[in-house]
Amino acid sequence: MKQILLITDGCSNVGLSPIVAAAHAKAEGIAVNVVGVLDHGDAGESGSMEIEEIARAGGGISRMVHTRQLAQTVQMMTRKTVVQTIQLAVQKELKHVLGSGAIEDLPPETRSEVVRVMDELGESSSLQVALLIDASASMKPKLIAVEEAIRDLMLSLQARQGKSEIAVFHFPGGRHGEECKMDLGWTDNLTGAQSIFPKLQMSGTTPTGPALMQVIDFYRQGDYGRRSREETDGMMSDYVV
């Protein structure tokens, strides 16, 4: 299961619309969750609306939270999206088999068994989470809260039975005009993400849409590499006696 978890505090102002980018992610099978981080007042009506629309277009969920609630919210959203992904798959299969995708339409005994299996899948399925952190100037006072949230998310992912991998990006990318920068590639060493925070330079514009597209491309490259290896392994197996 693939997720992008976007942590931001406001409106994008450079490049492609993040709502369009989130729709691209959904089409690629990647859910986009968005946490809007509040501090000393609200993020503004336009910022809140954009956050909701990004998540809706990306097939994910959105929350507006104060900095002190951020860690709990990040964990909750990650788990909830896993459950939603499994529910959609189960409902699609039920509709194919029974003509109805509603779990509530099943007999009580069958329904409880389906729910139990869904819970098990939520814990045992492989999960990839790409963290995309808004590092624009207005996020600087919130960096400590973001760091705590990521640390707690690492602990939550480590507690899962299934394989969990994380990658970390921030935007804007830096002084050379990069729209997004990768800080950590896919890893199941979930303690490694903490080392990136001292390196973050919080400044610049907010190119949320281009940053989302770069993370989508990163997912594509991983999938292409995996398919290439599988095809190579398949060809090599033809020559094994």
UniProtKB/TrEMBL annotation:
Check the record and name the InterPro entries matching this protein: VWF_A, vWFA_dom_sf
Q: What is this protein called?
A: VWFA domain-containing protein
Q: Which PROSITE patterns match?
A: VWFA
> For the VWFA domain, which residue ranges apply?
1-86, 128-241
